[in-house]
Amino acid sequence: MVNEYPQVMTIAGSDSDGSAGMQADMNTFLARKVYGTSILTAAVAGNSYGIHASHALPVDFIKAEFKAIADDFKILVTKTGMLTDTKTIHAVIESYQKYDFGPLIVDPVIITKHGAMLLEQEAYETVRDELIPLATVITPNFYEAQKLVESELQNEDEIIEAAKKLQAMGAKNVVIKGEHNGDSEIVKDYVLLEDGKNFWLEDEYIDTEHINGTGDTYSACIAAEFAKGASIEEAIKIAKKYTHDAIKNEIAVGHKFGPINHWV
Ligand SMILES: Nc1ncnc2c1ncn2[C@@H]1O[C@H](COP(=O)(O)OP(=O)(O)O)[C@@H](O)[C@H]1O
Ligand SMILES: Cc1ncc(COP(=O)(O)OP(=O)(O)O)c(N)n1
């Protein structure tokens, strides 16, 4: 018997400690039982103490990766992660539109939760004007949502307004991931769907330093579940639970800010 798995793709950077970026995406794809392909955009030298160096790949090489996958695979859903700068985003958009890689889940990676910048500031506008309009789902964290809508989000009404603005920019479905700084026992993500349905996804705050790669995992899980046939709403709910369980069932890796548990 030949087993078949839905084929998905991540367009992301490699994080050398395995906790985030492409490694978190691929771990999630494996765990959620889809076959993951990968377009590498950059490589970062990271460990549980932080990111120490970063190197963007040449755009011609990125385009060659796209062609290699397009020539051989039937990709059902694609997700983006670290895209570094405007020329990388342009190469990604050009190749994504040239071939058929399915709906796009955009994780607009700007900064890690420990403060390392993964997107040049000049590229925010490119993300807003050129990438967001292609997004079936966009999944900014609290900080990224503020950067993209260019205003501080101080209460729930402002988060709801920000989600509407992101939808007006062209994203069909929006997930704004909530703050988790320990000030509240609940972490709340806000979801605004294409048809206007909206809700808060709540879970308990988990007090741990092992939360590297949570955003990558969340968006990769949405891509995987959507590829397997879930609706966007179901895929988001499954991704929230999977990410939460992976944070809760901590593993002992690294000396500082460790990875989450993709085996969960
Ligand atoms: N300490 C925590 N306790 C509970 N949920 C968390 C915690 N940290 C992150 N999450 C959840 O993980 C998911 C990813 O969010 P986040 O960590 O903000 O993304 P990013 O990695 O893009 O910054 C969200 O659903 C968020 O609510
Ligand atoms: C190569 C690379 N890409 C993305 C990240 C950040 O991952 P994300 O899950 O969005 O954020 P953290 O939870 O890791 O802060 C990364 N570190 N490396």
DSSP strand content: 15-25%
Mean pLDDT across all amino acids: 96
The proportion of residues forming helix, as a percent range, comes to 25-40%
CATH superfamily: Ribokinase
Could you say what the CATH architecture is?
Answer: 3-Layer(aba) Sandwich
Order of strands in the sheet with most strands: 3-2-1-4-5-6-7-8-9
- Give the helix tally: 8
Rounded to an integer in angstroms, the radius of gyration calculated over CA atoms is 17 Å
Bound molecules: adenosine-5'-diphosphate, the ligand Cc1ncc(COP(=O)(O)OP(=O)(O)O)c(N)n1
Q: In total, how many beta strands?
A: 9
- How many domain units? 1
Basic shape = globular
Based on helices, strands and strand pairing, what is the structural class?
alpha/beta
Order of helices and strands: EHEEHEHEHEHHEEEHH
First-to-last CA distance: 28 Å
Are there runs of 5+ residues with pLDDT below 50, and where? none
CATH class division: Alpha Beta
CATH fold annotation: UDP-N-acetylmuramoyl-L-alanine:D-glutamate ligase
Keywords: ATP-binding, Kinase, Nucleotide-binding, Thiamine biosynthesis, Transferase
InterPro entries: HMP/HMP-P_kinase_dom (IPR004399), PM/HMP-P_kinase-1 (IPR013749), Ribokinase-like (IPR029056)
Domain Pyridoxamine kinase/Phosphomethylpyrimidine kinase: 15-261
GO molecular function: ATP binding; hydroxymethylpyrimidine kinase activity; phosphomethylpyrimidine kinase activity
